[in-house]
Write a structure and sequence with these properties.
It contains 15 helices and no strands. With about 300 residues, it is an all-alpha fold. It folds into two domains: about 45 residues, no CATH class; about 230 residues, MetI-like (MetI-like fold), CATH 1.10.3720. The relative contact order is 0.13.
């Protein structure tokens, strides 16, 4: 038995050898560029690099400056608000739309295309479109006032207290269609016999969704959450196109902070420190997902 096991291992290693050889460039690229670049960024975040990188280490000074900067604090607060509301609303609206589409409605392909179409647009285009729609001079506010409600006010992009919610509207418009399609694919994977059994037992539809269908779709929900969360952390284009971080710094986000310090303020050390904090945020998202998917339970 031991000899067979030893001979079986080389055979498994040699299986699909050409595919393994072909994947070597991709693995080297991942290791050298991604891991190497990440390590380089983290290391130089402990330096006082300005226009060009230099190995003059200053310990945690860059991180102390980062967390003392009001602009960074505002960007973190905005990301928390935008992220929490995006997760909740995109999942709820996406699931409701998916459940409605799963009823085999007429013109399903047309509706699915309409809902998914915004995701095909770039965030720059989406941001500009919603900048026009929310503009008080010729957007929603202007249209409603033209209909007779002259006291109506709706200018979120020009109000520092609610500007992040104007960005949220555009983000939901673009991303909810993708969430709908992912969850619809999960719903279509549910065995029809489960629905029949629920109807025979007289279980209301909302209870069937809440206590049977949603728990069965756990892997789909986890994957969808990771996709949404990764997009939230790196949100940049939408903010730049809609508000450029304004009014003032009211709609700043971490990705814009990193870009401005690295390429405009010419302070690479501060930009690297902010990038490292974003990396930590992504790790906080990815590690629990990987544990739940691959290490949280024993495979039979």
């Amino acid at each position: 038995m031991t000899g067979q096991a030893h001979t079986g291992r080389p055979r498994r290693l040699l299986r699909n050898l050409s595919s393994k050889i072909a994947s070597i460039p991709m693995m080297l690229t991942a290791v050298v560029i991604f891991l190497g670049g990440t390590t380089w960024t983290v290391v130089y975040s402990f330096t006082n690099s300005k226009l060009l990188p230099r190995a003059n280490f200053v310990g945690l000074d860059q991180y102390e400056r980062l967390w003392d900067a009001p602009r960074w604090i505002v960007s973190i607060q905005n990301l928390a608000i935008y992220g929490a509301l995006t997760l909740v609303f995109s999942l709820v609206m996406g699931f409701v739309l998916a459940a409605l589409m799963d009823q085999k409605i007429r013109f399903e392909n047309t509706f699915r295309t309409i809902f998914l179409y915004p995701f095909a647009l770039s965030f720059i285009v989406t941001g500009l479109v919603w900048q026009w729609i929310l503009n008080p001079e010729f957007g929603v506010q202007s249209v409603v006032r033209a209909l007779g409600w002259t006291s109506f006010t709706f200018d979120p992009l020009y109000n520092a207290d609610i500007v992040i919610y104007g960005v949220l509207i555009a983000g939901l418009w673009q991303g909810t269609g993708l969430v709908m399609c992912l969850l619809l694919a999960g719903l279509r994977g549910i065995d029809e016999d489960i629905w029949k059994a629920a109807r025979v037992d007289g279980i209301p539809m909302w209870k069937t969704y809440l206590f049977i269908i949603i728990p069965m779709m756990r892997p789909v929900f986890i994957t969808t959450l990771v996709i949404i969360a990764s997009g939230i952390v790196k949100v940049y284009d939408l903010v730049v196109a809609q508000t450029s971080g304004g009014p003032g710094i009211a709609s700043e986000v971490p990705a814009k902070y990193v870009y401005d310090y690295m390429f405009q303020a010419q302070n690479l050390g501060q930009g690297f420190a902010a990038s490292t904090m974003m990396l930590v945020t992504v790790a906080i998202i990815i590690v629990p997902w990987a544990y739940l998917e691959f290490g949280g339970r024993k495979r039979v």
